[in-house]
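Appendix B. Raw example, untouched.
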Amino acid sequence: MQQAISLATTAGQTSQILGPMIGGFLFSLGASYVYSTATAALLVGAILTFMIRTEHEFVRKSEPVSFRSIFLGLEFIYRHPVILGTISLDLFAVLLGGATALLPIYAQDILQTGPWGLGLMRTAPAVGALLVSLVLAYYPLKNNIGLKLFGALAVFGLATMLFALSTSLIVSLFALLLIGGSDVISVVIRSSLVQLQTPDEMRGRVNAVNSLFIGTSNQLGEFESGTVAGLIGTVPAAFIGGVGTILVAGLWMYLFPSLRKIRSLSES
């Protein structure tokens, strides 16, 4: 599972790196080339999706839809501290560590690099994530998974603080590489834990809640970074976000000791 998630992350990060480059080239030929290529890619993706073979290892009895059944996923998550800690950790850590939303301000006002510097900074986290996901695909994490999860979040927070204080493009790119790489370690561990520690009959509902938390944290994180930057300034906002991520990691280690003590992804 961990290696599969790493490979999926590799594919996603590769597309994030190559997509804008290919899109820019196609746009230079004409806008119609961009949309026709995107349409063709979506059709290919749809065809490949229909070709996926599934195996049903169990037959679940259908249960009547009730008000309680709608919230069974939330109830299951609440009763399992490892899953609750994993999902909520993503929400609050990403919510506070959304410094990448401030990249245009850093490129124009702080580093004064212009559009080309912004392009490099936009690409740096994806490159870091791609490199680490390739490593994890072939050398999966095995021991002390809980500590490695919190360690990755600590690196994420420290790298965010380094980026916030940097006035050099090289240092900023290095910090963004660390942000992308550490984030992938956290994502792979959290995604694997949610999948492997959820029984088959609850996986759809738990994944629905997890997807809601992930989407919420990404959007609200960018909103939070922009709002705080408008109130106290760009650099303090980014720095406080990094500090907040580390504080959340430390608090979650205390609140969810079962998550901290997990040694392998197969533990229940």
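End of appendix B.
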